[in-house]
Design a protein that fits this description.
This protein is α+β, with helices and mostly antiparallel strands. The termini are far apart. The chain binds ligand C2E and magnesium ion (2 copies). Ligand C2E binds at residues 232, 248-249, 260-262, 265, 278, 281, 301-303, 333, 363-364, 387, 421-424, 441-443, 448.
């Protein structure tokens, strides 16, 4: 930079300029740097949120040019990144993010622009028209690449990724709407179990709204007394004596009816309501257990969020003291989820809870990130084998019984009890006992009862449990898809009954039958009924029987369908 003033001699002749010259290189460089920082993420060197927004705006404005308009937006969120950061420290987390950025960039290549929005959130803008198949392939490749192991400072790290995809559907779609849609799709991908991608669908808006209303209702549920506990029997496999009950929370919503905990517990976790709900469950269950014989335990489910709360031991102690029960009467069920954030605090929490004297059970074993390492380390008294292993164990050729057997011997070696969850039928029960599980919980010994139901049961049965239920549901279940012969004119077609009642049935396997077609449905020899097609879609029809049938008389109709 030069600045100067002309100078003249006494005769007015021009002599030259007098002034200062400065080297601006440094200033220019820092200006550039500031400019760059405003647009690029300093860790990964990818465009930041602001620049990505500008890229998106510009792409959307370019509609109708050579690229043919259109645009796809990917929102990419890493799974389990927080865990890496918490356990291995931020420098490792940073190094991981850099590598993720490289992998994303190499997958997207020239077809779009990848950016980092912050934290473990990335975005890709893909200008032009794309069909869903290509985008699906791309999303799968992104997830696959990000999920490959990383080696950082000697640590072998695995994470995953979820992707939400939104497309510019028609003219007039603005960037804000596109981002919101991709965000909803990302939410859906995460709810679907992470490690997957989802395209935006319009109903996601109403689902999001639904969630919001439900969340608002949930905030008031405790105060309004809409939450209730039910108790499901847990039975000693050898003696068939009752060993305790598992407390299961129910929400009686004034208009929606009973909302499943599988729906509202995750919602409560997201909305920060799980601590108050969890505490209410704990206190209520202990108070109820105080009315039972001392050797009948109560099991309470804990969310991983409760488990990392430093006040948990104090809450547990207070619930026990308030109800005046023995600590041994309380069993806390923890899922494998708590080990995701495994660190010193986890071990510390286990030690504190053990010191109180409560029992600890590992719930849903086999469904999560099963690792034998933590089984050895954590002081569990019991392993609960997830229902998915029990289900189907009796089907020949299933490997489930081998798995159950392995879990049982492992538990025995570690001095732990085992509870098989979800036993529904007599043959499942027989198999589980044979495999050596020490405890059984499932519909075969009873569905969850409300508090009064438990007391009534105590009066009628005492502590003896009685197995009730079908001898076997499996062969019957298979006949759910039972084949029927459908007669029309002089033709015979083969259909499968999907659903049946006394007055009609849903039959699959008959293509494009016009509504109103008269048919005869033959269940088995000599058992036919005339019917009329009431509706038809692709290969499914709904028929109405000419007269109501006696479901018990239709011998071949499986019990599970008839009931
Ligand atoms: P869970 O802890 O594994 O509980 C067992 C679930 O299996 C219960 O479902 C129970 O009703 C069901 N079940 C028991 N026996 C059978 C059977 O023979 N067949 C079938 N099909 N199902 C059976 P529920 O009550 O719907 O609870 C679902 C999950 O919600 C629980 O799984 C638990 O993870 C969670 N949950 C329930 N109450 C609470 C709570 O108070 N706090 C927390 N954090 N989670 C809870
Ligand atoms: Mg449980
Ligand atoms: Mg379970």
């Amino acid at each position: 930079s030069l600045s100067g003033t002309p100078s003249f001699d006494e005769f007015g002749r021009f002599l030259g300029f007098r002034g200062i010259g400065t080297d601006l290189t440094q200033q220019r460089r820092s200006e550039e740097e500031i400019n760059r920082l405003a647009k690029y993420d300093s860790l990964t060197n990818l465009p930041n949120r602001m620049l990505m927004r500008r890229t998106l705006d510009e792409t959307l404005q370019k509609k109708g040019d050579a690229a043919g308009g259109g645009c796809a937006l990917f929102l990419i969120d890493l799974d389990r990144f927080k865990n890496v950061n918490d356990t291995l420290g931020h420098p490792v987390g940073d190094a991981l993010l850099k590598q993720v950025a490289q992998r994303l960039t190499s997958v997207i290549g020239k077809i779009g622009q990848v950016g980092r929005l912050g934290g473990d959130e990335f975005e890709a803008v893909l200008p032009g028209k794309h069909d869903e198949g290509t985008l699906s392939d791309l999303a799968s490749r992104l997830i696959q690449q990000v999920s490959m192991p990383y080696l950082i400072e000697g640590h072998n790290i695995s994470i995953g990724a979820s992707v939400g995809i939104a497309l510019v559907p028609s003219e007039g779609c603005c960037a804000d709407a596109l981002i919101r849609n991709a965000d909803l799709a990302l939410y859906a991908a995460k709810s679907a179990g992470r490690g997957t991608y989802c395209f935006f669908a319009p109903e996601m808006h109403s689902e999001a709204q639904d969630r919001q209303t439900l969340e608002a209702d949930l905030r008031k549920a405790i105060a309004r007394g809409e939450l209730q506990l039910q108790y499901q029997p847990v039975v000693n496999a050898k003696t068939e004596e009752l060993s305790g009950f598992e407390a299961l929370v129910r929400w009686h919503h004034p208009t929606r009816g009973v909302v499943s905990p599988a729906v509202f517990i995750p919602l409560a976790e997201e909305a920060g309501l799980i601590l108050s709900i969890g505490e209410w469950v704990l206190r209520t269950a202990c108070l109820e257990a105080a009315k039972w014989p001392e050797n009948i335990r109560v099991a309470v489910n804990l969310s991983p969020i409760q488990f990392v709360e430093p006040t948990l031991p104090a809450t547990v102690m207070s619930a026990i003291a308030n109800a005046e029960i023995q600590p041994r009467q309380l069993e806390l069920e923890i899922t494998e989820g708590v080990f995701l954030a495994e660190n010193d605090a986890t071990d510390d929490m286990f030690a504190k809870l053990k010191a109180i004297g409560v029992r600890l059970a590992l719930d849903d074993f086999g469904t999560g990130y099963s690792s034998l390492g933590y089984l050895k380390k954590a002081p569990f008294d019991k392993i609960k084998i997830d229902q998915s292993f029990v289900r189907g164990a009796v089907i020949s050729g299933s490997r489930n019984s081998a798995i159950i057997k392995a879990i049982v011997s492992l538990a025995e070696a570690l001095g732990m009890d085992t509870t098989a969850e979800g036993a529904e039928t007599q043959d499942e029960l027989a198999l589980i006992r044979q495999l050596g599980c020490s405890h059984i919980q499932g519909y075969v010994y009873g569905r969850p009862l409300d508090a009064d139901g438990v007391l009534a049961r105590q009066n009628s049965h005492g502590t003896l449990a009685v197995a009730e239920g079908f001898r076997s549901s499996r062969p019957e279940r298979k006949t759910m898809l039972r084949t029927v012969a459908v007669h029309h004119d002089s033709h015979v077609y083969t259909g499968r009954i999907r659903n049946i009642s006394a007055t009609g049935a849903l039959i699959e396997g008959l293509w494009h039958v016009p509504e109103g077609t008269l048919l005869s449905v033959e269940f088995c020899d000599n058992q036919s009924i005339n019917a009329v097609t009431r509706w038809s879609r692709d290969d499914r029809i709904g028929v109405e029987f000419a007269s109501a049938i006696d479901l018990n008389a239709v011998r071949a109709v499986p019990r599970s369908l008839a009931s």
